[in-house]
Structures are given as structure tokens and as C-alpha cells.
Specification:
Elements lengths: L20 H5 L10 E4 L10 H14 L3 E6 L7 H12 L4 E6 L17 H12 L3 E4 L4 H10 L4 E4 L13 H10 L5 E6 L6 H5 L18 H11 L4 E4 L14 H13 L4 H16 L4
Length: about 290
């Protein structure tokens, strides 16, 4: 986390500690990972410190050869002139490949839809598209993101952490329909990260939050969800990720990196070697690789 962040340490003491690449490498399974992508570390950072927070991420990446690139955090709702100035400053570093955005892009007084996205957001996303930058997303329906992509062809979108799927082994009808709508935009990808959290309801009786639990290790339980994503998005639009250190919600005694690799590798043994390589690393290199 950036030193400017205000993560709720009292409520999540196991997560509110320093975690850097040396800590990652000390985890079982980390030796199987050659490169990492740092996805925004800016929870609770005030606007006047956001640039410094992004620069800290880039400094960390420069000092750690294992970090491939950085997905930062900027307020995409701000006036286009100031957003463009910030993007210009940060994108001078080729390891800064885009930003992550969330449900705050919508008007708060209306249901979420393409038409209720705040005006500056689409203008600013258009700038990212022209500059060859991408967005990661959390909490935004896939059907809406597909419309965003259609409005600005060329924008690369990644829906993080199973694209908002409820934490169960089922393929829920509403999530299925949203993913099928999302797949209509060819530039939209799904990150299969934190896969073991799908077992939280089976393990605890409730959806995963920020409480640690013992995940189900049996890889076959995850297969229906993975099979659906494979059929819907194909081998070119799925990206493996761990979401570490948040993935340690699966318990401090759990090898959350190695466990997730084992679950994905188990599923992918039934697919082609080409598809396995794309999902486990090649798609990430294409989407997150530093800009030329």
C-alpha cells in the first residue's frame, strides 16, 4: 500500500502490513511466477496525493525486476484537462500501462447503466484509448463495459477477480447473462484471480469478505465456472492472476499463490497446451506488457 493510503487497519489487521516482492517470493508457489503486475495500491488516497501514490508504485517497479508493469489509479471523473495532464506525466514511464476504475463512475442517484456514467468519464476513457492505455475494473457490470468498448473501439478492458461472480461454485444465471453480454466486446478480458475465494460460501456459509477462511482445495469444484469462462471468452481473453496479498483471505496458513496455480493448471490440463500458455502468462504479457 502507498504510504498515502488509509486502509482500515483495525478491521483487517492481517492485510494492513507491508507486503513487497521479497514477501511474495517467500510464499510457496512464488517460484513458479516470473513476472508480477502491480495493480493500484491507492485505497483511501486523497486527490492531492494520488500522483505521488502512482509514482511510488513506479519507483517500486523500477527497483524490482520481477514487476512487469503498473496499473495505477486516477480519478477518471475529474475534468478532462487535469486528467490529461496527470496521464501525460505518468505515462512518460512505459511501465505505467493504465488505471483501475470502479463503480464510482456512475451517477449516485440513478441505477447503473451506460447512460448514467458521469460525463467526464467517457471523455477521459477516450484519452486512454488514444494513448494505448488500458483499464482494469471492479464493480462495473460486463454488459455496460461492452457498451463502453463499443463506444471507443480499441480500449483494452480487464474485469478483475472473476468479473464480480458471487463466491460459490455455481454459474449463476444473472452472472452468466452478464458475461455473455460482456463477451460481445472483443477487447474485454476476464482475470481469473482469487479463484479459491469461490469456495467461501462452501467453507463459511457466507460470501467472502475480508475475513480469513480455509478454502476448498479440490480443483474439480471450480471446473464449472472455469469451463463456462473458457467457452464464453476463449483462450485469448482469460488471464491468470493471484490478487496477492488479498488472496491471503484464504488463511495465513494457506499457500494462496500455489493453490491458485494448482487449481488453474488442473483445469487447463484438459485443454490445449497453447491455451494453457496463453492463460497462464502470454495474455498477461500482451495486455500488461510495458508500452513501446
Amino acid at each position: 500500500m502507498s504510504d498515502f493510503a488509509s486502509f482500515p487497519a483495525d478491521s483487517v489487521p492481517w492485510l494492513a502490513v507491508n507486503r513487497l516482492v521479497s514477501d511474495y517470493n517467500a510464499r510457496a508457489g512464488a517460484h513458479k511466477v516470473d513476472k508480477l503486475v502491480l495493480i493500484e495500491s491507492s485505497v483511501g488516497v486523497p486527490p492531492d496525493k494520488m500522483i505521488q501514490s502512482n509514482l511510488w508504485m513506479l519507483q517500486t517497479a523500477a527497483a524490482e525486476s520481477k514487476i512487469l508493469s503498473v496499473v495505477g489509479n486516477l480519478d477518471v471523473r475529474q475534468p478532462p484537462a487535469s486528467f490529461e495532464q496527470q496521464v501525460a506525466q505518468l505515462s512518460a514511464n512505459k511501465q505505467w500501462v493504465g488505471i483501475r476504475i470502479g463503480a464510482g463512475i456512475f451517477r449516485p442517484d440513478l441505477p447503473r447503466s451506460f447512460s448514467t456514467i458521469l460525463p467526464n468519464v467517457l471523455t477521459n476513457l477516450s484519452l486512454l484509448t488514444r494513448r494505448g492505455l488500458k483499464i482494469d475494473t471492479l464493480g462495473i457490470p460486463g454488459a455496460i463495459l461492452s457498451q463502453v468498448g463499443a463506444a471507443m473501439p480499441g480500449l483494452t478492458i480487464v474485469m478483475d477477480h472473476f468479473a464480480g461472480k458471487p463466491e460459490t461454485f455455481d454459474v449463476e444465471d444473472s452472472w452468466r447473462a452478464d458475461m455473455q453480454a460482456a463477451a460481445n466486446y472483443a477487447g474485454l478480458n476476464v482475470k481469473v484471480s482469487d479463484v479459491h475465494k469461490l469456495s467461501s460460501r462452501a467453507a463459511t456459509g457466507k460470501a467472502a469478505g475480508l475475513t480469513q477462511f480455509q478454502p476448498v482445495a479440490d480443483p474439480t469444484r471450480y471446473a464449472p465456472t472455469l469451463e463456462f469462462l473458457w467457452r464464453t471468452f476463449g483462450e485469448d481473453r482469460l488471464i491468470f492472476g493471484s490478487n496477492w496479498p488479498v488472496s491471503d483471505a484464504g488463511g495465513l496458513s494457506v499457500n494462496s499463490i500455489g493453490l491458485q496455480i494448482e487449481i488453474l493448471e488442473s483445469f487447463l490440463t484438459g485443454q490445449s497446451v497453447v491455451g494453457r500458455n496463453k492463460i497462464m502468462y502470454q495474455n498477461a504479457l500482451r495486455v500488461y506488457g510495458p508500452r513501446k
